[in-house]
Structure formats: C-alpha cells, structure tokens
Amino acid sequence: MRQILCLLSALFFLNPIEAAGESPANVDTSLTTILVTGVTGRQGGAVARELLRRGYSVRGLTRNPESERARALTRLDVALFRGNFDDAASLDSALEGTDGIFAVTDFWEHGYEQEIAHGRNLVDAAARAKISFFVFSSVASADQATNIPHFDSKWEIEKYLRESGLNYAVVRPVSFMENWSIDSDDVIAGRIVTAGNPARPHQYISVRDIARFVADAFDSRNLWNGVALDIAADEISLARICEVLTEITGRPVEPDEVSWADYESLAGGEMATMSRWLDAVGYNVDVAALRKRQPGMITMEEFLRSLHR
Question: What is the mean pLDDT of the chain?
Fold first, then answer.
C-alpha cells in the first residue's frame, strides 16, 4: 500500500528561495550548532547529514542513543542526547548552547493530541533556550483546512510556532519517495492496492531533497524567516510507477483497484481519509518552478531505479 502523497503552499511565491542555490552573500554564518529531533528517522537523519556536509555542528535527540542508527550517526560526529518530547528537562539539556533546531513530530506513533503537545513542548523549550532559528517540518496543505487529522495536527503546531515570537521557517513536504520499496510485499505480489484513479498524477519528494531545503533555511534565515514552503520534486501517477516497477523487477506490477470501503478496511480510516482527499483535490505545487530554485532534485523514477542498483 505504497501510494500516498502530500503537498502545497503559496508563501513560496514570496520568493525566499530565489537563493536556493545560495550565493555566499546570502549565507548566514552566525549559526553553528543545530539540534535535530527524530535524528534516527529517515527525515531527521537526512537533515543531520546535510547539515554536517555544510559545516554545522549537529546534535541529535533520540530516545535510544545505543541503537544501531544512533551509533552510525555518532561515527559521523553527531552528538547524541537522550530525551523525548514529554521530558522538558531532556529538551533543555539538548538545546543548551545550540543556535537552532530542526523539529519533526510523529502523528502515526503518538496520535493527534499528543503530537500537538509534543510540538508545543519543543517550541516552549526553544523559547526558553532563546534559540536563534527554528525549522519545523509540517506537511503540504496543512493550512488548507483539509480535515485530515495528521495534516491538522501539524497546522496547530505551525500556528503555535508562529505565535511564539521565535524566528522560524516551515517546510511542508509532500509524500516521501522513501515510502516505496521494490522489495515491499505489494510490489513482490505485483498488485498495488488503490481506491483512487491510477492515472491521476501525485507529487513526491525524497528526504534527501527535504534536507536540502531545511539546510537552505538555516543557511539563509534572513530570507526564510516567517516563511512556510510546500515542497515537491516530482509528479507521477500510480499507473506509471507500476510500469517502472515492472521494468525494474522484471515482474508485472499493476494497480489493484478496490472500493473505498475495502481500502479503508485494509489501510485504516486515517489513510482512507487522506487518500480520498488526494484523489479528489490533491496538490498543486509548481514543481517545474521549484526545481529551478533547487536544481538536481531526484525524480521518482530515478529514486526507484536507484534502489535496484
């Protein structure tokens, strides 16, 4: 069940990223140490690596510094701090002496109310630490009153951050390319279940490219301050994805069209709510314009083919 998306936001056209290719004059070198939450996850890990590549000192907040992923980050010189979003003291300790924070929260593990509480706890801790810049990862169209719970929870956090008095930016990614795998049970079975129109294009982005936008925000916080930007790298239909997977695997892979009732019984109410909205409304990011501002973003076909190398 590897088809689900998310994307949009008009503040892009305030033109904060005319400098996404960052000329030296636009880079703010006053930030040196960034705390990354969710550092052992896909998005947080990608952000940590990109920040290291650009010369920042990176701290990571994790519940388990002894995990395999955590140890791999330690070898890259990420300073790990044990903590969680419900423990204010652990947040204060991790933030002491930092300049900025990248925050990602998790609806799927914690649910609507707790995700909002976690986001607010992070904002409050950043305010206590007098952080110079706060970058929050939300979801595209969070501001569009979609009535999708995991969109609405991110929007509540966005509003709290905006009202906090902190300097901040928000990135709103669409569906992750990393949600797809050529080794998934669905692909191996050759049937990708969907209740939507398989020919309808949807938008995707890789965590690698999310990380580039996040790092740009820290590099050029004078341009990004107060900006919320929906980001996507590619637009492709499920039907075309199945064609690419067929080429890659050498086995037929096809959309398996089911009723919305059957889809909900398989995927759950939250996923069905989002999928209905995506099929009926979806996103409208100008991917071509965004790619001019962030050259080299990976396409979905490139991503899938990279998994087979």
Answer: 90
